[in-house]
Protein: Glycine dehydrogenase (decarboxylating)
Amino acid sequence: MTYTPVDYDTYDFANRRHIGPSPEEMAAMLRAVGAASLDALMDETIPASIQQKTPLGWPALTEHEFLAKMRDVAGMNKVMTSLIGQGYYGTNTPPAIQRNILENPAWYTAYTPYQPEIAQGRLEALLNYQTMVADLTGLPVANASLLDEATAAAEAMTMAERSAKSKARGFFVDRNCHPQTIAVIKTRAAPLGIEVHVGDPAAMDASAVFGGIFQYPGTYGHVTDYTDQIEALHAFKAIAVVATDLLALTMIKEPGAMGADIAVGSSQRFGVPLGYGGPHAAFMACKDELKRAMPGRIVGVSIDSHGNMAYRLSLQTREQHIRREKATSNVCTAQALLAVMASFYAVFHGPKGLRAIAERVHFATVRLGRALRAAGAKVSPDAFFDTITVEVGVGQAGILAAARHEGLNFRKIGHDRVGISLDETTDERVLMRVLRAFGIDGVAPHRAELGFPEAMVRTSDYLTHPVFHMNRAESEMMRYMRRLSDRDLALDRAMIPLGSCTMKLNAAAEMMPITWPEFGSLHPFVPVDQAQGYAYAISDLSEKLCEITGYDAMSMQPNSGAQGEYAGLLTIAAYHRANGGAARDVCLIPTSAHGTNPASAQMAGMKVVVVKSAPNGDVDLDDFREKAAAAGDRLAACMITYPSTHGVFEETVREVCQITHDHGGQVYIDGANMNALVGLVKPGKIGGDVSHLNLHKTFAIPHGGGGPGMGPIGVGAHLAPYLPGHPEQTGLEEGPVSATPYGSASILLISWAYCLMMGGEGLTQATRVAILNANYIAARLNGAYPILFMGNKGRVAHECILDTRPFADVGVTVDDIAKRLIDNGFHAPTMSWPVTGTLMVEPTESETKAEIDRFITALLAIREEIRAVEDGEISAEDSPLRHAPHTVNDLVAEWDRKYSREQACFPPGAFRVDKYWPPVGRVDNVHGDRNLICTCPPLSDYAEAAE
Structure:
């Protein structure tokens, strides 16, 4: 007998680990779809004229080969003690937080908490974050994070512009702000016609500005009381912004006590690794009267259907998806996972612990300054917290070299100074090494003396809520983190079938390297020779993304998809200016475009002209042609999404691009649906000039409960000279859009890992299976639910839209269906977007046939419950649809409903043994907005809210 070996390759990451359906399952799904093969399905779905002919070319690595390669790449980085400061500091991530939050898929695979009933855990953690920020800044309202400190400062400027009663067009910027903050503010101001005045706060002309921003402590260390400057701004009805440091605020007077209207900054030093620049959660806090003008997400307290306290996202009508071209910001991705980490850091240490860390940092800085002065060095400023500046004259290069010899990085300031910022990781040995770099032996003894005036000492309390005073034994901390994660439904429990959000597998091997110190410990502004591993990874990822997209160059700077849109439009605008087209300011955007598109265009100084959709959901070509002609030589760009937001490969995409080019415009192809293109269609080869890529969607970076994200942009060669620059780099003239040259650099490693382990062939197969999975759902549900848009051959792309509007005739809403899916153990699809009253479903390639079938079973069972309402067997008000989701309390309480407990809690598709129980009933959104509470209320208030 001849032995036949198995052909199963256990190390084939793409087909055995990432892609869900097996070959046998795919065959069954193709039969249900009615396609002869996967190739045939692609030909029926994607127009032949745009399909790429050349396959993606690189081979795949196995998981163990990839991890070995990453060890080599990590070794190319040089980990030193960076005392550069400038808004970035060494920090100790408590192991309990690293293991139970950062490395825990229950936290990093969660989606943005738009469905509050299944997000109570992360909402509580984010409410803790808001409370922490509000307390430390001394302002009553905070949001749930922004992208980075520099963009938060730019957001504060535009918030001040729309809130101030002053009619001035100027905005004052303290010259002591971090250089990257000043640069990003200038970038944001230019398209909006805001005049930026950078100068000495003591010489500010408050009558000439609608607002001003002050750095506290300053980038060179100054601790200055800005009460007088803030009063001067208020006298002219202007808004005062303070960019500040949360750790310093445990010791020094808070911005609220100075009269500040807005405070911004970064929470990075609260336990979040440096990661060569990110991701880190920025914060924003403001006075109560400004809260409705604040960008980003705000977690609030409301009640559920039983009158019990429940958390939710508040004031959603402020969001750019709803306000579109009237939006004041395009903030989409936040930094929820990093905000959660920072909030747990505050819970872990409590107010006394944070104060102890701050004192240790401050007193070490005092000792350092004393020793340097004793040796004759010129040290400034007189009042400081953790940063000092030393005048070294012509010896600057020698001092910097001596520091590097000691394994230290100082900050190079001008040609004759160095900056030194101490942090939580600074110990006695580091102080000795710093002084040796200056030729000084020994260190001054510790004395508890302040390096700033006593008048600047903080006197108010902070972090008084009981959550910051819990027993901090690790057993209790571990259980608190577990309790919160158990309240949530994330990708580690079930499929999250969200249209346009691509909630695919975030493989463990892809995630592992980001916590290695060789990647996590690098300051974003270290000398380039210390970051060669990052340079290699980013360069190779850029090359692969260029091959995938058909573009010629990439900018890795934008740290969210919306930032990518904004950066892409700024690149187009700069190109037009350089080529005599400064008057080009019209952007054509179809009604079906992503919600952030119009907001991004408005931020880039463009005038949005909306193009109609045809009845089949495509761009209305006649309307597009007419509006392009009307714009004429003012046409700057069009923004389209491909495949369309309606989930269809439009046949006319090349024609749309050609019309735009014929009128001198540039084509922006939104990359949100790139998961339907990789390996099959190159946007840069079908007429696109620029696209952003949502690496947190198509390229496997996890959503983290609402961020982190990355949105790099690919451009044609003609646009490459106009990509965003950065003050820490040379060669690119345009201003930056983010605080660091490579945005949230550490998570680029995840997308690189995904590309390396999938290989070109695996990435292409993933796209094909994503399209198969979506068509399988559409085929199985068609008839039960109308499928709203399909291509000419009856196929959808990677997502499909279920039309639930007909059910409104009998009182069943899209909300009812979404909440009922929770009882089945599923996160709802995207609700009411891009079409109100519909559900947009995107299964991704990672979901197995069994999970997809479970989802289909749940939706078919819900359709039967709707049919019972249609047939008059039960009213919508009395049905399980209206009472969903059902909690354990429902199960054990008195039962007087017209359906059984069994039907309520264990509908078809739900697991019985591993049943997910939502912690709250349906949340009352209206109550939450009318009674806005967005910091942790006292426990007594919870009881009052339930009455």
About this structure: The chain is about 35% helix and 10% strand.
